[in-house]
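Much of the work behind modern protein science is quiet bookkeeping, done one molecule at a time. The fold becomes a row of whole numbers, each drawn from a learned catalogue of backbone shapes. The protein below has been through that process, and both of its lines are reproduced in full.
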Amino acid sequence: MPIDFEVPPEVARTRDQVHALVEEKFRPIARHYDDHEHEVPRDLIREFHRMRDTIPAKRGPATPGGTLGAAIYSEEMAWGDGALMRCLPGPGLGGAAILANGTPEQQRKFLARFQGPEPAFGAMAMTEPGAGSDTASIRTTARRDGDSWVLNGEKVFITSASLALEHTNGLVVVWAKVVSPGASPDEVRHATMRAFVIPAGTPGARIGKVEKKLGVRASNTSSIVLEDCRVPLDHMLGPPEIQEKRAGGFRGAMATFDTMRPIVAAVGLGVARAALERTRELLRQNSIEIRYGLSPARLTAVERDFMELETKVQATRLIIWRACWMGDSKQPNNLEAAIAKAMAGTIVAEVTRRCCEMAGHLGFSKKELLEKYMRDARLTNIAEGTGEIQRLIIARRILGYGRGQLK
């Protein structure tokens, strides 16, 4: 059966609409918000919230077109600016966790918060000071107290955390270990992990350190401190039974990552594409055209390098789309999601760096966005699991090893 690589017409129309919009709204202000870290683009937030029914923002797999549609739109938004797109209101990673782990009733209840008249933000909190890529080692705890869960711990490097907790109807999905009062450290380590929804305004949840970053500076990144943070019982995502094999445990966390990693990869790809396109324009300004259809022996070194980078970007896109398509088709895509994320992290960093080099002094000048693209690209290899962790996942899947056999 032939393979069709055409984008569905409705997705293509929305993609083109997104492209025109971010070119107009993101590009002119990208440098300002990179230079003024922690300044919130409130006008942009309000404008995109008004257009939420026609322009997909941070909806993740809930986007029309599914995960594949979300990846296509995310690439286009990141082409406009990979940092400003993370400032837009919507369920974001929190919504992805709710869709992957929540019951149908919980999905309806919590995702409805983002349909109100005011902008609302969603975030997901997994990483801790002592538990980054090793998610099984988190120390944040949740214990039952009557008709509530009480959470204690600290989460770090959370995208949009302060926006989620400070805006009405926002929420953060926090991953914690379900323990009994007075549990020992060893008991905490081996306890079942579950996801809990912390709505904005919940007592006991406060913003901690706000990070200063190398790249993606327009995006808000901060920590959350939980001190006897109390939420109702139904704010634990998934069925109430505390069983590792039920949705909401470690496998539920991994399902969230399998959904979002191809989308994160697509965001990085959008940044790489922006760098390539601007580099082509700068080369043309210096009377250097990329001549296609010639034998490699007749091409200049710059032409060969540029074509090589284009090829890598296009190959990465196909891998991302395959991982998304498998997820939308309800096929296990853990391996493919990890491959897409690992490849994108490497390729995006290479493309943006080499574009800076091909542009000469302009590649390292603030007169151009190329140096910003190179800084922003670094996040692709870090967010949602580092490149090293992705390669570990790939090796386990190919060799048939478990976590205990290959670390």
Q: What stands out?
A: The radius of gyration is 21 Å.
